[in-house]
Amino acid sequence: MYIERNMTAATTGLLQGGRTVEILQTVQLPGFVMSFTKDEEIFGEGETANFVYRVVSGSVRIYRILEDGRRQISSFCFPGDVFGLELDAVHGASAEAVTACEVALVTQNTLQRAAACDRTAASLLLRLTCRQLCEAREHMVVLGRKTAMERLVTFLRDMAVRSECGCLVKLPMSRADIADFLGLTIETVSRTLTQLERTGQLTLESTREIRLSRSLLADGEAVH
Amino acid sequence: MYIERNMTAATTGLLQGGRTVEILQTVQLPGFVMSFTKDEEIFGEGETANFVYRVVSGSVRIYRILEDGRRQISSFCFPGDVFGLELDAVHGASAEAVTACEVALVTQNTLQRAAACDRTAASLLLRLTCRQLCEAREHMVVLGRKTAMERLVTFLRDMAVRSECGCLVKLPMSRADIADFLGLTIETVSRTLTQLERTGQLTLESTREIRLSRSLLADGEAVH
DNA sequence: CGTTTTTTTGAGAGCGGTCAATGATGGTGG
DNA sequence: CCACCATCATTGACCGCTCTCAAAAAAACG
């Protein structure tokens, strides 16, 4: 009951807080928030999708695993990102905390009811999902058609843009996470980063901090 | 004017014809229909998304290309499939006719207006997009984590299910299309098919017709 | 029936994977 | 505070899957 009331508050914040996807993705959510420890499961593939989630702090990985343990991370979610939206269905992927994180959540029912009343809200949800689909297609190009070197460069540029940290990128995830996101092995990720450092395109300040050179951040796709 | 009236009719058919995604995806659409010849462009990446499309007959490929010509097909659309939905945005991918085809279309504006009036319609659109996102994630696993052999088997099984042709799968697309969908080369696609035939898992009746064995259609993932 | 395009097949090379060992890093308890 | 241990990251040697390049075979087309 307490939770229900708070989730409604969260919904209100989610839907009325912003009239555009941009606002929806950056505004802080009031209401029901859960905390997860590093590597803790948020939901599992096949579970009924009761909630829609939104990252408040920390980061989250969305992934699927094959029977033999091979894992493919389809996306990382950072503060402002919404995930877990699967209308009237079960979750088609699992979600785990990459780092300790806080996640705001709303029941899918509440969200549907709100969307039914507010046409702008419904439109927002659809736009949000369309954008995720577009990003998914973009990532398919990476997985299907790019070399290891190109995958890493694409990833680092994307992280630089998303974290808005200029050229010093702080990675919340391990090499294994990066490998499973890019469809590579940890060894190849490590070797490729080393190679990029040797050719002066970046500096590995620490394992989780990478300083990108201007040339690497530029749009020029000619990376060898 | 004529077109506008007909597109409204199409919208009505699209949204009231079915109350579930299943119905939406199988029902024939009345209204404004366009025909495309083999390999003709339906829309291009970067174009303003004015319409939402639905395959009536034939098949369509959705893809992105890199500057140097590498192509990644993110999905094939068959009769009943909806594509091109990108709310208030430009198309994030291109669409081409794989075979000569008929496509029903509705303006995005009309669709939004209809969705604003009919909460079920809005819900349908969202559900539709969620499903596509789920399929995209599934395909990422194929592209990032499966071997050439596993990719072909996954593809053939999927085609068998979608075409509902039992074990005789008719492929509307070329080897190049299959290669660009699976993140392989045409040579690898061809060689892998030959290998599957030599091991008795399928019969290449003709280039575009493949008879799958029972064992290959079964869920057993142990394919070598 | 000839031409063009698509598909298959072959030979060889290279990219990324596997296996293994070494080197960092970080957390825990003495 | 430091020693210890477990985990994570890097590096090396080698292998194999898939790509590249090339040619032949088959299919599609006019």
How would you characterize the overall build of this protein?
The structure is a homodimer of 224-residue chains. By secondary structure, the first copy, chain A, is α+β, with helices and mostly antiparallel strands. Helix content of chain A is 44%, strand content 23%. Chain A has helices at residues 2-16, 21-26, 108-117, 119-145, 148-163, 175-182, 186-198, 214-217; strands at residues 33-36, 41-43, 51-57, 60-65, 71-77, 82-83, 94-97, 101-107, 168-170, 202-206, 209-212. In chain A, a hairpin with a 2-residue loop joins strand 10 and strand 11. Chain A is globular, with a radius of gyration of 18 Å. The termini of chain A are far apart. Residues 1-30 of chain A have low confidence and may be disordered. The A-B interface holds A 62, 64, 66-67, 70-72, 74, 85-89, 92-93, 112, 115-116, 119, 122-123, 125-127, 129-134, 136-141, 143-146, 180, 182-183, 221 and B 62, 64, 66-67, 70-72, 74, 85-89, 92-93, 112, 115-116, 119, 122-123, 125-127, 129-134, 136-141, 143-146, 180, 182-183, 221. Chain A binds a DNA duplex (30 and 30 nucleotides) through helix 7.
Order of helices and strands of chain A: HHEEEEEEEEHHHEHHEEH
Radius of gyration of chain A: 18 Å
Cα end-to-end separation of chain A: 58 Å
How much of the residues of chain A is beta strand, in percent? 15-25%
- Low-pLDDT stretches of chain A are 1-30
Contiguous helical run count of chain A: 8
Fraction of residues in H or I helices of chain A? 40-55%
Oligomer: homodimer
Q: Find the count of extended strands of chain A (DSSP E, 2+ residues).
A: 11
The profile of the biggest β sheet of chain A is: 4 strands, antiparallel
Spatial sequence of strands, sheet with the most strands of chain A: 1-8-3-6
Q: Tell me which protein chains meet in the greatest interface and how many residues each side has.
A: A-B, 44 and 44 residues
- Protein structure class of chain A: alpha+beta
From the spread of the alpha carbons, the general shape of chain A counts as globular
Average pLDDT level of chain A: 85
